[in-house]
């Protein structure tokens, strides 16, 4: 029996009990039709779609539709079906699938839409994270206050292979993907399992996903092995991020066929530095030495310091298989236990590596400097060198500290010059981001035996400073040659967004640190002051990481913009062509201009820059995933005890804690905090107990215990020490 309405005519109650007049109803109906552009509805369908329950409001829908049609706001068909007259916007962009319920579309830059567009899962048309799509943007903002829309067409899949754990039942099988932004299990027919067994890690390729199907269908293309084993998990990470397992046979053959002989003709075409003191300084386990430094005192009292870089483009020619593979990889990737090189070993560790006591072809930036480290003049060109000594960082630092050993005089002088360059750079507004780098000690099976924080000493900073000088000099040389009109590859770091910086400033306040957000060099000064303040403190790691995240991301582009973090007007990457494709691009363009060539068309090079930036991001994400995996494994094997930690994040569902001793981050779930009912205070980023009024907020120092680790999800579950359930066994999944 229907409920009688006591409301006056023209008013009624909408869902939720709110009173709605005819003007509000008209806006609601118009908004609905506008957000369903291209579709027709009759009045009954609209009532149902809007979930209108009140009889008065139901009766008002039909007259309002006719009134809107008469006024030209909507269209009416002869069958009394109504549709929107408003033109929506059609754009293309990339899917960012944040959770199972909705995704955002990041619009292509050409549309100049700063706000991401929200798409509900039902309107994604089976698009997945990273896919390129064409969407319709609704004319009006939705209830969220954001621009909303729906996918019209899937233009390009970003990936069709996923890694996950296979689950086999008597009649069918599913693969549960590791990738956190893949929110659908993948259905596998029994005949497409490829020999995989229950609970094994596999690579699965999508084969079909019909519209209306809840899950995609796929087939297993590679069985990785038993979940939890080191090699299997590392291979899972490689497959998850689309990293190559090996080189194509033809590329390896091409590399092996390159002669290691340097002709006299080639040497005559280059500046000869073989008689000048030269050495390399690299990590102890490095094999690809792509930079060397030469030093000599000049007759006029100044000093000649040469930065010599492996001449990779002498060996890797355009339109070859080697070039294609280098471009596709775009960067070497450094996982926790291995390097996935950009170039085959024949090149990276052999022909191009600036090994000692061998003649090597290089591209050089040579500086004449006075004793104040001012550059009097410079020269850029192709050279041949002969390295006298290969130093590990530790050896070179020891020679400086002890003032003895090979080339200790030269090393000491170069170190003093680098300190002057560094001071000058910071005086001009460079930001001192000295991030904590955690390294693992692994046994022969890859099991973590321990971890340590990598220490950056003067020798690391010395090499960094001369590489920065070379990179900056090359960028400024090309830019100033034709006032920035010539196409070139720059490394650009934009000024930070003040709103994001304000958010970071508020976060730092929770730890007791004040940051005065200004502009330009004032931002740099404030950030440097903070970096000095937090050295050695428990919050150092988290604040350094968050400071970096609040900055703009450095990218490759042909736009001749500056580098905020380094305080350089122009900057590029010239010094690591063995491991970075953009450096190869720089070498090619640089030689082209040195030979008097005209500026090439910019769009092609910008596309290469975009590709390189994307590959850099992929490599960074894979490296982080491998570290997180080892952190989870390490904490699963670590001593069962209380750990000191610091609260680094607070959400409505849990508290994130970084363990001070191991730099590993875990979460205490609110549902497991059984001493009280905790409410989330979003404004102040804290949890408050309803009864005990206990507050848990950012920066709190806490004691925690590990209660569970999950290798698949790469998560660590914690609880506060002192919990009565501490004696329960630790779970490892």
TrEMBL record:
InterPro entries in the cross-refs: CSD2, NA-bd_OB-fold, RNase_B_OB_dom, RNase_II/R, RNase_II/R_CS, RNase_II/RNase_R, RNase_R, RNR_Ribonuclease
Organismal lineage: Bacteria, Pseudomonadati, Bacteroidota, Cytophagia, Cytophagales
GO MF annotations in UniProt: exoribonuclease II activity
Record-listed E.C. numbers: 3.1.13.1
Coiled-coil boundaries: none
Domain of life of the native organism: Bacteria
Primary location group: cytoplasm
Disordered, as annotated region: 1-20
Gene3D superfamilies found in the cross-reference section: Nucleic acid-binding proteins (2.40.50.140)
Catalytic activity: Exonucleolytic cleavage in the 3'- to 5'-direction to yield nucleoside 5'-phosphates
UniProt function note: 3'-5' exoribonuclease that releases 5'-nucleoside monophosphates and is involved in maturation of structured RNAs.
Cellular compartment(s): Cytoplasm
Protein family per UniProt: Belongs to the RNR ribonuclease family. RNase R subfamily.
rRNA processing as UniProt keyword: no
Domain S1 motif: 640-721
Protein name, entry field: Ribonuclease R
């Amino acid at each position: 029996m229907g409920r009688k309405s006591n409301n006056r005519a023209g008013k009624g109650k909408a869902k939720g009990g709110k009173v709605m007049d005819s003007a509000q109803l008209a806006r609601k109906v118009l908004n609905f039709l506008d957000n369903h552009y291209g579709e027709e509805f009759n009045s009954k369908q609209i009532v149902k779609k809007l979930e209108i329950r009140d009889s008065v409001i139901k009766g008002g829908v039909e007259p309002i539709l006719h009134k809107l049609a008469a006024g030209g706001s909507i269209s009416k068909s002869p069958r009394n079906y109504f549709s929107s007259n408003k033109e929506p916007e059609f754009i293309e962009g990339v899917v960012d699938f944040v959770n199972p319920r909705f995704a955002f579309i990041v619009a292509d830059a050409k549309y100049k839409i700063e706000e991401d567009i929200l798409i509900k899962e039902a309107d994604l048309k089976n698009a997945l994270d990273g896919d390129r799509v064409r969407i319709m943007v609704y004319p009006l903002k939705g209830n969220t206050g954001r621009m909303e829309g729906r996918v019209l067409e899937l233009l390009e899949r970003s990936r069709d292979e996923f890694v996950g754990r296979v689950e086999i039942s008597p009649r069918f099988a599913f693969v549960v993907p590791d990738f956190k932004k893949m929110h659908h299990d993948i259905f596998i027919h029994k005949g497409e399992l490829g020999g995989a067994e229950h609970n094994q890690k596999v690579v699965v390729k999508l084969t079909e996903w019909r519209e209306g199907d809840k899950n995609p269908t796929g087939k297993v293309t590679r069985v990785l092995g038993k979940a939890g084993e080191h090699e299997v998990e590392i291979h899972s990470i490689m497959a998850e991020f689309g990293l190559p397992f090996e080189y194509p046979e033809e590329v390896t053959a091409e590399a092996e066929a390159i002669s290691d002989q340097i002709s006299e003709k080639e040497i005559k075409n280059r500046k000869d530095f073989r008689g000048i003191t030269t050495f390399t300084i690299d990590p102890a386990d490095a094999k690809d030495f792509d930079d060397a430094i030469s030093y000599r005192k000049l007759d006029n009292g100044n000093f000649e310091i040469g930065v010599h870089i492996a001449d990779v483009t002498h060996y890797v020619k355009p339109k070859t298989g080697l070039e294609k593979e280098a471009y596709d990889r775009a960067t070497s990737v450094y996982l926790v236990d291995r390097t996935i090189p950009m170039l085959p070993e024949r090149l990276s560790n052999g022909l191009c590596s600036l090994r000692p006591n061998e003649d090597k072809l290089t591209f050089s930036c040579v500086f004449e400097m006075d004793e104040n480290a001012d550059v009097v003049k410079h020269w850029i060109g192709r050279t041949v060198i002969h390295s006298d000594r290969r130093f590990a960082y530790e050896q070179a630092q020891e020679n400086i500290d002890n003032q003895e050993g090979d080339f200790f005089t030269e090393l000491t002088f170069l170190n003093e010059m680098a300190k002057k360059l560094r001071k000058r750079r910071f005086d001009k507004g460079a930001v001192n981001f000295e991030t904590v780098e955690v390294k693992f000690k692994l046994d022969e099976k890859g099991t973590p035996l321990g971890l340590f924080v990598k220490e950056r000493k003067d020798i690391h900073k010395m090499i960094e400073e001369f590489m920065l000088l070379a990179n900056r000099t090359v960028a400024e040389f090309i830019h100033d040659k034709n006032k920035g009109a010539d196409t070139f590859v720059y490394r650009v770091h934009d000024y930070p967004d003040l709103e994001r910086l304000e958010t970071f400033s508020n976060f730092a306040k929770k730890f007791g640190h004040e940051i005065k957000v200004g502009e330009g060099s004032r931002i740099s000064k404030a950030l440097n002051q903070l970096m000095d303040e937090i050295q050695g403190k428990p919050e150092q790691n988290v604040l350094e990481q968050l400071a970096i995240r609040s900055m703009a991301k450095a990218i490759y582009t042909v736009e001749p913009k500056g580098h905020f973090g380094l305080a350089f007007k122009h900057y590029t990457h010239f010094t690591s062509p063995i491991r970075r494709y953009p450096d190869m691009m720089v070498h090619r363009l640089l030689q082209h201009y040195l030979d008097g060539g005209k500026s090439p068309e910019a769009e092609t090079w910008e596309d290469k820059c975009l590709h390189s930036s994307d590959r850099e991001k992929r490599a960074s994400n894979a490296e982080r995933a491998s570290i997180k995996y080892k952190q989870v494994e390490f904490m699963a094997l670590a001593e069962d005890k209380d750990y000191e930690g610091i609260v680094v994040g607070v959400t409505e569902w849990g508290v994130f804690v970084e363990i001070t001793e191991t730099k590993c981050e875990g979460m205490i779930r609110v549902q497991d905090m059984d001493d009280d009912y905790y409410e989330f205070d979003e404004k102040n980023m804290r949890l408050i107990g309803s009864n005990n009024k206990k507050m848990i907020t950012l920066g709190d120092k806490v004691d925690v215990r590990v209660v569970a680790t999950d290798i698949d999800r790469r998560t660590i579950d914690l609880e506060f020490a002192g919990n009565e359930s501490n004696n329960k066994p630790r779970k490892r999944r």
